[in-house]
Amino acid sequence: MASAENVPTPEKPTKAHAAPPAERTARPPVDASALEHRNLRGGEFWREIPAFANVSEEEFLDYKWQMKNSLYGEDKLLELMDGLAPKAFVDDVLRGFHLAPMAVRVTPYLFSLIDWNDPLHDPIRTQFIPVASRLTMDHPMLTLDSLHEQADAPVAGLTHRYHDKALFLPLDTCPVYCRFCTRSYAIGVDTDVVEKVSLKVSPKRWEEAFAYIESRPELEDIVISGGDAYNLAFKHIEAIGMRLLAIPHIRRIRFATKGLAVMPMKILSDERWLDAVTRVAEHGRKVHKQVCIHTHFNNPNEITEISRRATNTLFERGITVRNQTVLQRGVNDSQETMRLLVKRLGEVNVEAYYVYQHDMVQGVEDLRTSLQTNLDIEKFVRGSTAGFNTPTFVVDAPGGGGKREAHSYEHYDRETGVSVYSAPSVKPGQLFTYFDPLHSLSDAARADWKDADKREQMVQDALLAARNHQGQR
C-alpha cells in the first residue's frame, strides 16, 4: 500500500464566477414590428363595405344576422362586389365559379376583412373566392379523395385510420366553404365539376357510427368534424358529446370548427350552442376526459378583436382551443406571415397545433406549395415563441398514411417533386407519395410529368430510393 506521503494532493477546485455586470450583454430593444401580433383589427371595419355601411355593431355581432346575410352563390356575391371591385376582377370571379370543386359561401364578417383595394392578392379572398386567372393545371397524380377517408370508413361518415383515433363526420355543411377543402368530395352542394357524397344530418346514421366505436375498445380519441360542428344544433352538440363520453374507453373528444375564424360572433351571441359545448366540457372534466375545440385560422388578418372576445369567452369557461393551419400559396407561405400567425394565435390563447402541407385537392393547385417551402418555414418559425405554442409541420400522406412530420420523409427529390413517407404505426410496410405542384418545378420536370411512361418511372425511382434509405438504417 502506498504511504500517505506518496498520495497526490488533489488540486483545489476553481471557483466559478458570474460575469461582472459590465461584461454582460443585453438584447437590444425590440422594434415595434416585433410586437405586431398584439395589434388586432378593431372598430366597425365592416362599415367600409357600402352594403354594410348602416349595419350596427349589435347586428353585425349577431350570428343569426351573419348566417342570414351570408354570401351564398354567385348572384349574391357578384351583386355585393359590383362597384367595390374592378369589373375585370368580377368577371374573373364569375369564370372561377364554374371551375371550382367547392360551392362558394362567405360570411359578411369575412367579406369585410378582404382588402378590396387589391382583392386579387388578398389572402382571405384567395381562400374563399375563386378566380379563373389564378387556376393552374392539376397534378396528374391528384385524386378527389386523396386521403382515402372513404376507403378507411367502416361505416358511412366514420374514418378509422389510426389505431386509437377515429374521425366522425355527422354532417356535410359549413358556415363557409373553403376552396381548399380536403373533403370537397362531400362538403356543400354539387358543383359543375363534382357530384358530392351525401353525409346529411341523420341520428340513425350516427348510431351506426357509435355502435362501431363501442365495438372497438382500442378507440380512445374521436374528432367530431364534418362539415363543421358550428352547424350542428345545440341539442346535437350535447347529444353527440355526452354519447361519446359515456363510452368507457373514449378518453378524448374534439369538436372541429372553422367557425372561430369565419364567424366568431356565434360564440358571443348563440348562448344555447356555447352552453351545450360548455356542459359537455364540464362533464368531461368530471369524468376525467378531455373535451377541446379545434379551429382553423390560416392568416393573421383573420384574427381580430372580435376573435379575441370569442376566444376569451371560451378561455373563461376552461375550454382549450387548438388551431390547425393549412399552408397555402399567397396566404401564409412567407416565413414572416407564418411567424406572425403563430404569435397572434398565442396572443388570443389558441394553441398552434398543426401546419398542414396542402392536400392534393382537385381544382386548387394554385394554392399548393412545394414541400421545401414547408421545411424552410418550419425552420424559421421554430424558436420564435414557446415550444408548446409552436405548431408541428406535417404532411397528411396521400393514400391514408396519416399525418407525418414534414421533415421525416424517407426520400425527397426536389427536381421531380416526389417525396415518400412511411407510416409504421398506421399502415406498416407501406410507402406513401406526395407530389409538389407542377408550378413549383422546372420546365423539364413539368414536361416529364406530361409523359405517362416518364411519370411512372419517376414514381418508381422515388419508391426505390426510399426503400434503399430504409434498408440503410
Automatic annotation (TrEMBL):
Highest rank taxon of the organism: Bacteria
UniProt modified residues of type N6-(pyridoxal phosphate)lysine: 403
Record carries keyword rRNA-binding: no
One example GO MF annotation: 4 iron, 4 sulfur cluster binding
Composition bias, Low complexity: 16-29
SUPFAM superfamilies assigned to the protein according to its UniProt record, in alphabetical order: Radical SAM enzymes (SSF102114)
Extent of the signal sequence: none
PROSITE patterns cross-referenced by the UniProt entry: RADICAL_SAM (PS51918)
Cofactor: pyridoxal 5'-phosphate
Keywords attached to this entry: 4Fe-4S, Iron, Iron-sulfur, Isomerase, Metal-binding, Pyridoxal phosphate, S-adenosyl-L-methionine
The keyword Iron is assigned to this record: yes
Region spans: Disordered: 1-34
Residue stretches making up the Radical SAM core domain: 160-384
Matches recorded under Gene3D superfamilies: Aldolase class I
Pfam families named among the record's database cross-references: LAM_C (PF12544)
Name listed for the protein in its UniProt record: KamA family radical SAM protein
Species classification: Bacteria, Deltaproteobacteria, Bradymonadales, Lujinxingiaceae, Lujinxingia
